[in-house]
Specification:
Blueprint: E1 2-3, E2 15-21, E3 25-36, E4 39-51, H1 66-82, E5 91-95, H2 97-101, H3 105-116, E6 120-122, H4 125-139, E7 146-152, E8 157-163, E9 166-173, H5 177-184, H6 192-216, E10 220-224, H7 225-237, E11 257-259, H8 260-270, H9 286-289, H10 292-306, E12 310-314, H11 318-330, H12 335-346, H13 351-367, H14 376-389, H15 401-411, H16 419-431, H17 437-440, H18 448-460, E13 472-477, E14 480-485, H19 487-491, H20 494-509, E15 514-518
Parallel strand pairs: 2-5, 5-6, 7-10, 10-12, 14-15
Antiparallel strand pairs: 1-4, 2-3, 3-4, 7-8, 8-9, 11-12, 13-14
Helix pairs in contact: 1-3, 4-11, 5-6, 5-10, 6-10, 7-10, 8-10, 13-14, 13-18, 14-16, 15-16, 18-20
């Protein structure tokens, strides 16, 4: 585990922390947000890294084996000690590819959240790519025009083209240094045929996206995080200048640059050996040795398919991006609002109706009791996003539109949203109208109060008008939802009264008491 000492003069209240549960390593960055007239910068205070090799612990049935499971939890407990006492709003923890694909990832996440003491988000590949680009863009020198960022992780590789701080093209491919090494170099055995197969397999994956990326073009190529940094350091430490006669050991050049010649020289040197354990290279760390051949093969494929001659390297990657995104949320530059806005535009949502339903649903939620663990601000935001998106399925079909809305939100790439965010939104959308039985048997669904508010608002706003909406009081006592509306108003709105009675009956049907009071 790598540890950088902290500054004792800096108080924990001033700090933010990002936790990255990667497929090869678990990492944590603690930083101080420094606000300047030109913008906010992060001053790193403390970093922790543990080589967990989670991807190597996946069984053939896509389950995390017990050894990897326990290695992960042990590392997370140590991380949890470091950030104990931090405010929840100052910490963001994300999990990547292996925890996207492992069938028992939900159980691991639940155990890991207890060990860490903070929520953990499993993020989609494209969201990972977005955050990687944000982190790299804030740390590397500015460039006129497009920038390409490539991040080879343990289980996936992200490719991003952006301009300034904004990503434009984002892809995540299922090739990573751990998974590739396990597939092509089992037990550390190396030969020319296996290496060629590893390169070709990576090239086939990259060919799917290379056309669009080459058409877009870039002025600067950046390799971010672990694999890229390790390759650059090995090239520099061993003076891999591309000469065919091998290595000149012991001379150290400036690190931070990967060249095509350097990669080829490294490959030639590797193939002198039959096993990675035999390889002699200055700076080749033991915890990187087993996954280095797979990372090298992928990087060579990247260079060949995208026509790259040299690539700059930065330590900034997912963790930095997570923190800049976290700061953006606190400063009202939340990418999730942008994403919802884009979806509303793409699917031609009725903005007035979405606003009407969202405003009323939020008013109802604010009337209900708040538990000690609830983040009311976050739930109000989620509820309003659900209202904004509840009718996007109408662009497909009016019949069962809520199912289409839920499917889109549950399966689309939604920058800024975690997998859990999307799952919660999709559940609210599938449940905002119609039968409740589809959610009653879902043990993982817990947003019943929010669903109550959304469904009630949707019923009352059926007329799609701000005029003549009733004054409504809602409450919840001992598990019973109570809705109070003027009897006089109900008499003049028989359709709404009938709909409210049906709504109450639907909740009672699933064992959740619901009282409609007309006074």
């Amino acid at each position: 585990m790598a540890i950088h000492a902290i500054d004792p003069l800096i108080q924990s209240d001033d700090l933010v922390a990002a936790v990255d549960l990667g497929s090869n390593s678990f990492r944590m960055l603690v930083a101080q947000a420094v606000h300047t007239p030109s913008g906010t910068q992060l001053r790193p205070i403390d970093t922790l890294r543990e080589s967990v090799r989670l991807a190597a612990g996946l069984t053939e049935h896509k389950l995390l084996g017990n050894d990897a499971y326990q290695r992960g939890l042990t590392a997370i407990r140590r991380f949890g000690e470091r950030i104990r006492g931090f405010d929840t709003s100052n910490v963001r923890a994300v999990a990547t590819n292996t925890l996207r694909v492992a069938k028992n990832s939900q159980q691991f996440i639940e155990d890991a959240q207890v060990a860490l003491g903070f929520p953990i988000e499993v993020i989609a590949g494209v969201e990972e790519a977005r955050l990687i680009y944000i982190g790299a863009a804030h740390e590397v020198p500015a460039v006129q025009g497009n920038r390409l960022v490539v991040d080879i992780g343990g289980g996936s590789t992200e490719f991003i083209i952006g301009k300034g701080y904004e990503p434009k093209l984002m892809e995540s491919l299922y090739i990573g240094c751990v998974s590739h090494s396990m597939q092509f170099f089992p037990k550390g055995n190396v030969d020319a045929h296996a290496f060629k197969e590893a390169e070709l397999a990576a090239r086939r994956e990259i060919q799917v996206i290379s056309g669009a990326y080459l058409r877009s073009g870039w002025k600067q190529a950046i390799g971010s995080s672990g694999t890229a940094r390790a390759l650059a350091e090995l090239i520099a430490a061993n003076n891999l200048n591309g000469h065919a006669d091998g290595l000149t050991m012991g001379r150290v050049n400036a690190s931070g640059l990967i060249t095509r010649d350097g990669l080829r020289a490294m490959k030639k040197h590797l193939l002198k050996y039959e096993h990675v354990g035999q390889v002699e290279l200055l700076g080749l760390k033991d915890d990187r040795r087993a996954v280095w051949p797979g990372g090298l093969a992928i990087m060579l494929a990247v260079f060949d398919e995208l026509g790259i001659e040299e690539m700059e390297v930065t330590d900034a990657a997912l963790r930095s991006g997570v923190l800049y995104d976290l700061l953006g949320r606190s400063q009202h530059h939340d990418m999730r609002y942008v994403t919802v806005e884009q979806f509303m535009q793409r699917y031609s949502s009725d903005r007035e109706q979405a606003s009407r339903v969202g405003k009323l649903a939020a008013e109802f939620l604010q009337q209900l009791p708040k538990s000690e663990t609830e983040s009311r601000v976050d739930n109000v935001a989620l509820l309003q996003w659900a209202a904004n998106l509840h009718e996007i399925g109408l662009s497909i079909s009016h019949n069962g539109y809520h199912k289409h809305s839920a499917y889109i939100v549950g399966n689309a790439d939604m920058p800024g949203f975690s997998k859990n965010d999307q799952a919660r939104l999709a559940a609210l959308l599938i449940g905002h109208t119609g039968k409740l039985g589809k959610l009653a048997n879902n043990a993982s669904f817990y947003d019943w109060r929010m669903l109550f508010c959304l469904r009630l608002a949707q019923v009352l706003c059926r007329g799609r008008s701000d005029e003549d909406l009733p004054r409504v009081r809602v409450s919840e006592r001992e598990g019973v939802y109570q809705v109070c509306i003027s009897k006089e108003w109900a008499v003049t709105h028989p359709l709404t009264e009938f709909s409210l009675l049906k709504e109450a009956a639907e909740w009672v049907r699933i064992g959740r008491p619901y009282e409609l009071s007309l006074k």
